[in-house]
Amino acid sequence: MRTELNYKHLRYFWAVAREGSVTRAAERLGMSVQTVSGQISRLEQAFGQALFNQQGRNLVLTEAGRAALSYAERIFLLGEELSDILRDDALDKTIRLTAGISDVVPKTVSYHLLEPALQMEERVRLVCREAGFDELLTELTLHRLDVVLADRPALSTQSQFESHLLSRCPVNIYGTKDLCRQYRDGFPHSLAGAPLLLPTRDNILRGQVENWLETLNLRVQVVGEFEDGALLKTFGGQGFGLFPAPSFASADITGHFAVDIVGPVDGVFEHYWAIANRKKLQHRAVEAICNTALYAS
Description:
This protein has 297 residues and is α/β, with parallel strands linked by helices. It contains eleven helices and ten strands. Strand 1 and strand 2 form a beta hairpin. The longest helix has 24 residues, at 63-86. The N and C termini lie far apart (61 Å).
């Protein structure tokens, strides 16, 4: 028979693990050392696992203790968030929107995709989490997210999700002024042998750019591959190489990274999607995002 978790005991464990000492934890909790020590023993009995080992005067977490601490951190962090939310006098007038943003979606594009929700008459409390596509869909399945912004839709077999195309955006090649002067004339054939920075191979844009170059029978020098788009642009801004990026954010890219447009990547587009659980489409902020096509061509 499973023993129900005693959250008071778990909080005492959490305090001891953070302080590294029963004595210091007891002082912080305003309790006696004996009481705290006894509650930890009861928790260990309930789990059937030792959570600490004694090493000299110090307590060291066991493997079970490390696992318990990981969960305790999340449990009590969520409790603090809940307290903050419920203390908000404007809670009844606030819409909470938790958005997962795929790590391949540029930061400036993310803002524009979320902007329709932020412009609603109701007050929106926005929480953004960035991760890989598969991880975000798992979080969406568990209803920990309201919407996911990504460069691809959910698979057709994932019928619990509904995908909405928000943007079909042309792609440009960007570079510093020196590189623009060198490669703009005769573009795109001038790119033969040019230094190019590309996303890593799991990025959809990478495959599209390589196909475009192959169609033109162009060979370039790939001098850098990056998982993080902002890091790619930073290296591009330092003149390390030319790089592809969506025209959606061209003003932000040219202004922030001190680069210019060399030329368009004809026939190549970045697509940005909003993915939600079907029932979440009743969420007004999610509906505002899904119902707004920001750029199409």
